[in-house]
Amino acid sequence: MMTDFSKTRQAFDLPDGVTYLDGNSLGPMPVGAAQRVARMMTEEWSQMLITGWNKAGWYTQPRRVADRIARLVGAGPGQVVMGDTLSIKVFQAVSAARALRPDRRVILSDRGNFPSDLYVAQGLARAVDAELRVVEPEEVEAAITKDIAVLMITEVDYRTGRRHDMKALTRKAHEMGALTVWDLAHSAGAVDVALLDADADFAVGCTYKYLNGGPGSPAFIWTHPRHADAAQPILQGWMGHRAPFDFDLAYQPAAGIERMRVGTPPVIALTALDAALDVWDDVSLTDLRARSIELTQAFIAGVEANCPEVVLHSPRDPQQRGSQVGFRHPQAYAVMQALIDQKIIGDFRAPDVLRFGFAPLYNGLDDVARAVDGLTRILRDRLWDREDYMQRADVT
């Protein structure tokens, strides 16, 4: 049965009159999230107090929610766990992968990676006497040599939408004796990720973008089963202990993916995320990918036919692109503020990129048409040329 995207759209509480093309930064609120969180607070936290860790299953919630995400990233049950922030999970995955290759010191990444991942790797490299080597995105495959310990790549470039070939790069890394860490921040819920099929080693991702878990919702981490009982991340926490309530002063890692837990689960946030994942139960990732390509192709065609002032900043080939499109304009920030004023919401990425994310769960061709019309009018009539549109806000 084909996925009914008109039905999934009804699962989101989108403001009237808004065309929302920023789900690659923060997904909208699912209709059921507020009620689910309210029920958790009034029936569980309020009435159960601390007994909710057992009675309501708060302690095991990170595993249950993670199993729902596993299907969306091509992983198996019991291979993913939730918790903490994406940066923490990046640190855990890269440090664990590096420790599995103790005779090598190079962590390889690319300039299209999200800066936070590079910051984490820079700090880790200082701590363990390693080297972070950064190349251009198109140079990654050639740069995978026999001195590489870890390949750390964000599958879909946050700015251009360029999609790395996970299977090919993982194969090359393994041929050279390296391990892979994939950041799925702009992949999970947007494209057809297949971790096991690609034979990847580690993966991490956030849940507040295409998975619609809410601002600051917790990250996830996946370890291939062949590494699950050998991985030893530097960052070890109470919840990752074999028997946390023995209060042993010496750390003993839990079995499998459980050792990748660190801090206390964010139960309220996980409850909202669990509600957000309900909509995925009837979604085919094949249909999702096809719909994403339809939307992004239509948007590129419409903008290029009507807006000669902008230049495409994303791959033209949809097979090399995630579910977002970027266009360059010298006044991109002001142009985006003018669009937002007209209730067409995308975002800006420095230095000059207009970025638009397309989420098939709630975006349709009507959103594409409205965005094209709005951008055309703003550029044609120079509606962006206002002083207030040029004043940078704290979050861009």
Essential attributes:
13 helices, 7-stranded mixed beta sheet, globular, 4-stranded antiparallel beta sheet, Kynureninase, 396 residues, 2 domains, alpha/beta, Aspartate Aminotransferase, domain 2, Aspartate Aminotransferase, domain 1
How many angstroms separate the termini?
40 Å
The poorly predicted ranges are none
- Inertia-based shape: globular
Question: Can you give the mean pLDDT?
Answer: 97
**Share of residues in helices:** 25-40%
Total number of helices: 13
Give the CATH level 1 class of the largest domain: Alpha Beta
Strand content: 5-15%
Structural summary, described in words:
With 396 residues, this protein is α/β, with parallel strands linked by helices. It has two domains: 5-29 and 284-390, Aspartate Aminotransferase, domain 1, CATH 3.90.1150.10; 33-281, 3-Layer(aba) Sandwich (Aspartate Aminotransferase, domain 2), CATH 3.40.640.10. The chain has 13 helices and 13 strands. Strand 5 (148-154), helix 8 (166-175) and strand 6 form a beta-alpha-beta unit. Helix 4 (61-70) packs parallel to helix 10 (267-277), helix 5 crosses helix 6 (115-128) and helix 11 packs parallel to helix 13. It is globular and about 70 Å long. The two termini are 40 Å apart. It is an enzyme of class 3 (hydrolase). Its EC number is 3.7.1.3. It holds the Pfam family KYNU_C.
